[in-house]
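Re: your question from the hallway

Yes, I did run it. Sequences:
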Amino acid sequence: MNLQFASLLIALPLISAFFVPVIKTISRKAVMPFLVIITAVQTGIAAWVFEEVYTGGKPIIIMAGGFKPPVGINLYIGHFAALFVLIIAVAGFFMAVFSMKSIGVEPKDKYAMLFLLLMLGATGMISTGDIFNLFVFMEITAISAYALTAYNKTGEASEGAMKYIVLGGIGSSFFLVGIALIYGSLGTLNMAQIAQLAGNINPTVAQAALALLVFGLAVEAELFPLNAWAPDAYQAAPHPVTAMFSAFVVKAGLYAMVRIIYLLRDTQAFTGILRLVLILGTITVVIGELSALRQTNVKRMFAYSSIAQVGFMAVGFSLGTQAGASAGVFHMVNHAIVKALMFLAVGYVALELGGTSIEDFKGLGKKMPLTAFAITVGAISIIGIPMFNVFWSKIQLILAALKVGKTGVIALILGASLVEAVYYIRLIHTMWFESANGEKVKENFTLGVIMLLLVALIIVIGVFPNAAWNIAQKAAADLYNVSQYIKNVPLLPGVSP
Amino acid sequence: MVMKRALAILTILLIGYWIALALSHVPFGADKMLVGQYYLNHVKAQTGAVNAVTAVVVNYRGFDTLGEVTVLFIASTGVAALLWRKKRKRTAKTEGSVVLTTGSRLLFPFIVLFGGYIFIHGHLTPGGGFPGGATIATAFLMLYLAFSVYEIPHKGFEITEGLAGMGYVTVGLIGLAIGSYFLFDWIWQSWGWGHSNIGRLFSAGFIPVIYTIIGIKVGTELSGIVDSMVKEGGE
Amino acid sequence: MSIGVYYFGAVSLILIGLYAVLVKKNLLKILVGLSIMETGVNLLLISIGYIAGRSAPILSEGVGPNNAVDPIPQALVLTAIVIGVATTALALTVAINLYETYKTLNIEELRRLRG
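Structure:
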């Protein structure tokens, strides 16, 4: 089969989103089932691409318009992109199912369109091979995220969205200045060619460009100090959207940042920028965990916890070694599974019991045992208890830090895990050991199945981590090994200085 | 307050100095082209367009443009979603004067025509689908300003917008089917239409087709945004 | 260190916009600041593509491949402008919703009302 058909990953959500207005005029009720079907098909395509890339061992290069890079824009679906495109599609599918139940606010047809375009943006960000195209997909993701954040039309939602828009606007302007500097130095926008020619950039220009690009992406990657929007937006957004933010939107931003930093490895600014990311990541972890400790709203607490975990990933990538990158990718995968589960469960609780404050979670073990069980497994996993998936990625992070002798990072991880243990065990205690009046809720069967699937995934990876670890290592190699990346992209000969 | 302002100015000056320092190594007005020169050398043969910018936008960097169309679509969808109320209607109280209403009626078809001219000739002259579509939207904005009760036909506009978007992706998918690449210019490269016509209207492969689609889409989208913003919600 | 007047203008616009975003209290002024920043960035991109003494990249009537400016930044700016428009439209919509809820656009008031 023609591998160019992988471009359906972009084409399908797009054409489906454009089709929604037509569907709406036929039947308003058909919109949400349509969303579920499309995300299911997308999952199928993503699974096919994943299979092709991991069995073939070669990345799929999609050339738009048939022009070879750097003349045309190419998509680079390597081991990393194949893995994350699959995660995006699966998470999107689960959340589409959840949306059928949880979205009550009109207009649902617009919600479905924005949902698909958010998925499309993240898919594009992860698979593109062109730095300006990355900007375009980043904006697609960001603008649909703005709209979805404000979707509930409450004061909190509008305020969260406004913070996001202002920070995102500053970020995208800086990102474009960074692109302008790189383009002005090299005359190309293709990422492989930029990596190839990176040594030619003037050191001052490289430093400014890298810092601006990192600064611009830090909004999406939720790194301190540009993550002020995240807790508000996470709390106010519709529940499935929050889960998607945490499961893949933030990862797409972080991936883009790491990809660009590694591509410019040949510049002198490389070690400096890694140190900067290490510092920002550390502050993100510390602030995230300490803020989570103070929250009385469970959804907001999970939001801060999610931010802190992203900090861990950034720290892993900033170690600048293959082991660090592998640990970072592994943590990304594990965190995506766990947070999709936890935000799904919290959203479901809010739906049934009317809120997400800690009061609503009293006696949840009796009222909604399955949901409480899911949250418990997720919490235990995030803390880093052995036999659960996050344990292994935390161990790998520690090992990677040990190899480069960064004991501060090890202390950070252990300390943060301790703080996590405090607030998550408090939550578990509230759910299982505090009694509250209220009837037992009949839990939804489909959502129960999804939660149990995710719980099973957490435990399977926890008990047999090797398969997942191998996949993560391959994905990280794709990210870390830049010379291989350059070789994989069939650059047109003759278009070089 | 003064402290905060001073701090802001200081930060900004630092950032500015630093960007300027970097820019001083990117000489202004010098020939820095690499891929750009390739485009200039091959644009006529590969795409049939005289306007190199258009060829870059539609052909070489087609993915960007598809994304750009999507961004605008998100904006119009988002605006409509966020301003959604049960009953929304126009609240303008004074009708436009005779000069205004008659003038707008007279001008309306010509503005639309001009918008159409801009996007159909995108491969020959500066312009293209986005400016053309924006011009068309101005025509509708003018009607909103002149008449206190005017509204665009919402359903029709929404469906046109969706169908135009689908049309763009479909053109791309036909490229995937015929030329085995997404967004492949099948009219120019597979069918070879218009090779003798470079510099005239019927040339440049699918550029005029795509720009027409984009023009219609942008026109309906921006009109939709105007409509959403002009009307006020009555609870 | 010397930079061209266009670079200077572009960077100045970016900084003016950033100043408005950082210091202004009115939400609309902040959004105007963002738009000014975007304009500055667009001007910067276009200036980077300029080559002294060459004309627009429309290859007819005596303009050949060797006397046209770089077409790529112009294409990029086209995209960037549209994205800027989209962001601004959405931001204004959110501002409308904020105003309808809190009856103010002053960010300090907003913060106070939220508590």
